[in-house]
């Protein structure tokens, strides 16, 4: 089949002309998938397969990458407690950032959803605005705020009298968690926002008329309905936080390594590509397992209620 | 004594007047409908009774108690919303139990009352269903049970049947009326559907542009509409231009080629109103308006005729009794009884 013919077929099926529906339905324009498929295979599948393969290669200080199949890198990760600690830190940071994003993002989305016309759009833009700025710029902003003992955050906290001396934010897990939670917040807000759109606007009035107070309405009526949104937002934030590179490398620095920054160092500083590949593959596998697992749990938990 | 009393209630949104100077008293156990086109203020009125909106003027009293400053959660009213507003994450039984739970009713009693409520709306066996897995009619019944199980002083219904298909709507109307009669809850229904209002209510409040046009029983409002708006909104009405001529000793109402003795009242140019179903055909030479049938539509239990008369267009509805009916293009005479005819001066009220 020539390309032009398949394009015509696709146009017909997109806007079905009366009387021609059976024809276009019977011959789905599969060839149209080709460009996307080729791109996907070329830039995702092939590099991924190469990375997995790379993680089984050997590497020597003087020999470079040796194209043999060995479990050396995997054994090293398995036996060296340094890697345990690093992965534990990665997921701890991601988990805490997700928690903070949920605690702040869900109420934020709720308030936003109840705002009136001009303010709603304005504040939505403010919340989503950070997405328009590079992650590096946003993180450097946090570096300025945290920056050493004279950072703005410390100055403000000391001025209010919450703390006596400066808290170290830079190069600490706390700093990374705070910065990550902020960077990822829009994803959580958007996800909860989408869930809120499906909530019947009269439902709070219904609960009110049945005698429920504001707190009860929040806890018993609204929260259960937006929970799927919070959880799916949580999955997005967790995955992005666990694989984040810019924020941990700027706020965390060279010593506070997470999986992404470690893989980067192995590739570009130590030049031990196979070990870096093994770390990256392990991070990917762990994330896929966590996401697929929690998704399955969420779907089972809420399938009865939501479709 | 009136049970629910609206006393000169008004609501403004900035410059826009949604409800103005509305007074209404509802007796205990009465079923009353607020009827009007969208934007007439009926929903705003309901929201004010429910407490979701504060009136900008006037007061609302329930059983002698001023409701104006009472929070909606404390008013003890049952509300069925247009969208039903069921809690999607709770089963039917949990939905119904929610109001009882908020009132601190002990679990054992709660279970009994939920079961009774489900039985009342004919949904026994659906206790553990989630709303999404129920049909529109079933969801509607759950919403009704949820509103009634708390034994509210007043039941407020906000266009509760508008999301159901025609057949189901009719069934629910009968059922809703039956349930309301059985338990005797004072009920206020908001609707834009005149047949629904007529089928259900003891009295109808016809509203337009934030004001009450007429309050009366369904029969009264239909047969003796207080204003042109009411006569047009409730059913269909034919209007003919005529004239009342008053001379010494006699007064005549003249329309086209026919005339009647004129009643006391207006003189000069008038509008004559007649309901389509009150008009009959007379092939003889009686005192009737001459007309030609332009369109004949068969609608099962009745025929609908569109006619071109000497005084303007008219429609006629005839029961399908099996008798032969005039055909399209036929010349006929439209006749009606003098008492079925309304007269008002042109540009004025009746």
From TrEMBL, chain A:
<feature type="transmembrane region" description="Helical">
    <location>
        <begin position="226"/>
        <end position="251"/>
    </location>
</feature>
<keyword id="KW-0813">Transport</keyword>
<feature type="region of interest" description="Disordered">
    <location>
        <begin position="1"/>
        <end position="23"/>
    </location>
</feature>
<keyword id="KW-1003">Cell membrane</keyword>
<feature type="transmembrane region" description="Helical">
    <location>
        <begin position="122"/>
        <end position="145"/>
    </location>
</feature>
<dbReference type="Pfam" id="PF00528">
    <property type="entry name" value="BPD_transp_1"/>
</dbReference>
<feature type="transmembrane region" description="Helical">
    <location>
        <begin position="91"/>
        <end position="110"/>
    </location>
</feature>
<feature type="domain" description="ABC transmembrane type-1">
    <location>
        <begin position="87"/>
        <end position="294"/>
    </location>
</feature>
<dbReference type="InterPro" id="IPR000515">
    <property type="entry name" value="MetI-like"/>
</dbReference>
<dbReference type="GO" id="GO:0005886">
    <property type="term" value="C:plasma membrane"/>
</dbReference>
<protein>
    <submittedName>
        <fullName>ABC transporter permease subunit</fullName>
    </submittedName>
</protein>
<feature type="transmembrane region" description="Helical">
    <location>
        <begin position="271"/>
        <end position="298"/>
    </location>
</feature>
<feature type="compositionally biased region" description="Polar residues">
    <location>
        <begin position="1"/>
        <end position="11"/>
    </location>
</feature>
<comment type="similarity">
    <text>Belongs to the binding-protein-dependent transport system permease family. CysTW subfamily.</text>
</comment>
<keyword id="KW-0472">Membrane</keyword>
<feature type="transmembrane region" description="Helical">
    <location>
        <begin position="32"/>
        <end position="56"/>
    </location>
</feature>
<keyword id="KW-1133">Transmembrane helix</keyword>
<dbReference type="InterPro" id="IPR035906">
    <property type="entry name" value="MetI-like_sf"/>
</dbReference>
<feature type="transmembrane region" description="Helical">
    <location>
        <begin position="174"/>
        <end position="196"/>
    </location>
</feature>
<keyword id="KW-0812">Transmembrane</keyword>
<dbReference type="GO" id="GO:0055085">
    <property type="term" value="P:transmembrane transport"/>
</dbReference>
Automatic annotation (TrEMBL), chain B:
<dbReference type="GO" id="GO:0015697">
    <property type="term" value="P:quaternary ammonium group transport"/>
</dbReference>
<dbReference type="InterPro" id="IPR008995">
    <property type="entry name" value="Mo/tungstate-bd_C_term_dom"/>
</dbReference>
<comment type="similarity">
    <text>Belongs to the ABC transporter superfamily. Spermidine/putrescine importer (TC 3.A.1.11.1) family.</text>
</comment>
<dbReference type="InterPro" id="IPR003593">
    <property type="entry name" value="AAA+_ATPase"/>
</dbReference>
<dbReference type="InterPro" id="IPR027417">
    <property type="entry name" value="P-loop_NTPase"/>
</dbReference>
<dbReference type="InterPro" id="IPR013611">
    <property type="entry name" value="Transp-assoc_OB_typ2"/>
</dbReference>
<dbReference type="GO" id="GO:0016887">
    <property type="term" value="F:ATP hydrolysis activity"/>
</dbReference>
<protein>
    <recommendedName>
        <fullName>Spermidine/putrescine import ATP-binding protein PotA</fullName>
        <ecNumber>7.6.2.11</ecNumber>
    </recommendedName>
</protein>
<dbReference type="InterPro" id="IPR050093">
    <property type="entry name" value="ABC_SmlMolc_Importer"/>
</dbReference>
<comment type="function">
    <text>Part of the ABC transporter complex PotABCD involved in spermidine/putrescine import. Responsible for energy coupling to the transport system.</text>
</comment>
<keyword id="KW-1278">Translocase</keyword>
<dbReference type="InterPro" id="IPR017871">
    <property type="entry name" value="ABC_transporter-like_CS"/>
</dbReference>
<comment type="subunit">
    <text>The complex is composed of two ATP-binding proteins (PotA), two transmembrane proteins (PotB and PotC) and a solute-binding protein (PotD).</text>
</comment>
<dbReference type="Pfam" id="PF08402">
    <property type="entry name" value="TOBE_2"/>
</dbReference>
<feature type="domain" description="ABC transporter">
    <location>
        <begin position="4"/>
        <end position="234"/>
    </location>
</feature>
<keyword id="KW-0547">Nucleotide-binding</keyword>
<dbReference type="InterPro" id="IPR003439">
    <property type="entry name" value="ABC_transporter-like_ATP-bd"/>
</dbReference>
<keyword id="KW-0472">Membrane</keyword>
<dbReference type="GO" id="GO:0005524">
    <property type="term" value="F:ATP binding"/>
</dbReference>
<keyword id="KW-1003">Cell membrane</keyword>
<keyword id="KW-0813">Transport</keyword>
<keyword id="KW-0067">ATP-binding</keyword>
């Amino acid at each position: 089949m020539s390309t032009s013919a398949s394009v015509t077929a696709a146009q017909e099926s997109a806007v079905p002309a009366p009387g021609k529906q059976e024809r276009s339905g019977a011959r789905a324009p599969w060839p149209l998938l080709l460009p996307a498929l080729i791109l996907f295979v070329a830039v995702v599948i092939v590099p991924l397969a190469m990375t997995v393969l790379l993680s089984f290669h050997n590497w020597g200080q003087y020999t470079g990458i040796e194209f043999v199949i060995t479990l050396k890198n995997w054994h090293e990760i398995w036996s060296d407690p340094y890697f345990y600690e690093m992965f534990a830190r990665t997921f701890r940071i991601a988990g805490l950032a997700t928690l903070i994003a949920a605690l702040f993002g869900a109420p934020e989305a709720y308030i936003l959803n109840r705002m009136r016309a001009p303010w709603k759009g304005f504040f939505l833009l403010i919340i989503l605005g950070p997405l328009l700025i590079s992650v590096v710029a946003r993180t450097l902003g946090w570096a300025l705020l945290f920056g050493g003992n004279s950072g703005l955050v410390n100055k403000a906290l000391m001025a209010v009298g919450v703390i006596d001396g400066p808290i170290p934010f830079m190069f600490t897990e706390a700093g990374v968690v705070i910065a990550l939670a902020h960077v990822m917040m829009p994803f959580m807000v958007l996800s909860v926002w989408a869930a809120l759109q499906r909530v019947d606007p009269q439902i709070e009035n219904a609960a009110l008329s049945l005698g429920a107070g504001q707190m009860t309405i929040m806890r018993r009526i609204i929260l259960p309905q937006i929970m799927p949104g919070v959880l799916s937002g949580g999955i997005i934030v967790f995955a992005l936080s666990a694989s984040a590179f810019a924020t941990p490398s700027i706020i965390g620095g060279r010593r506070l390594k997470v999986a992404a920054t470690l893989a980067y160092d192995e590739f570009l500083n130590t030049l031990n590509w196979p070990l870096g590949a093994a770390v990256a593959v392990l991070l990917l596998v762990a994330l896929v397992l966590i996401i697929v697992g929690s998704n399955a749990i969420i779907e089972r938990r809420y399938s009865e209620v939501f479709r | 004594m009136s049970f629910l009393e609206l006393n000169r209630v008004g609501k403004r949104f900035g410059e826009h007047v949604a409800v103005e100077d509305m007074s209404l008293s509802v007796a205990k156990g009465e079923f009353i409908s607020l009827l009007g086109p969208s934007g007439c203020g009926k929903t705003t009125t309901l929201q004010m009774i429910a407490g979701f909106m504060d009136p900008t003027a006037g007061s609302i009293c329930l059983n002698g108690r001023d409701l104006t400053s009472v929070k909606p959660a404390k008013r003890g009213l049952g509300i069925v919303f247009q969208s039903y507003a069921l809690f999607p994450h709770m089963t039917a039984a949990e939905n119904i139990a929610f109001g009882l739970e908020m009132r601190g009713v002990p679990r054992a009693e709660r279970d009994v009352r939920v079961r009774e409520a489900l039985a009342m709306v004919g949904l026994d066996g659906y206790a553990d269903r989630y709303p999404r897995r129920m049909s529109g009619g079933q969801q509607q019944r759950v919403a009704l049970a949820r509103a009634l199980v708390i034994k509210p002083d007043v039941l407020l219904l906000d266009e509760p049947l508008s999301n159901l298909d025609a057949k189901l709507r009719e069934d629910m109307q009968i059922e809703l009326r039956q349930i309301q009669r059985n338990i005797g809850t004072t009920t206020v229904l908001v609707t834009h559907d005149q047949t629904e209002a007529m089928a259900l209510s003891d009295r109808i409040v016809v509203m337009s542009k934030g004001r009450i046009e007429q309050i009366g029983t369904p029969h009264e409002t239909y047969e003796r509409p207080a204003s042109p708006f009411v006569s047009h909104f409730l059913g269909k009405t034919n209007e003919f231009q005529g004239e009342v001529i008053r001379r010494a000793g006699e007064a005549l109402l003249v329309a086209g080629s026919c005339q009647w003795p004129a009643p006391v009242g207006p003189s000069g140019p008038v509008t004559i109103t007649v309901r389509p179903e009150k008009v009959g055909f007379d092939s003889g030479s009686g005192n009737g308006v001459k007309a030609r049938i332009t369109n004949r539509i068969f609608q099962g239990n009745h025929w609908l005729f569109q006619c071109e008369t000497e005084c303007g267009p008219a429609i006629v509805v005839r029961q399908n009794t099996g008798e032969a009916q005039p055909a399209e293009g036929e010349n006929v005479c439209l006749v009606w009884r003098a008492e079925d005819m309304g007269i008002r001066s042109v540009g004025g009220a009746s």
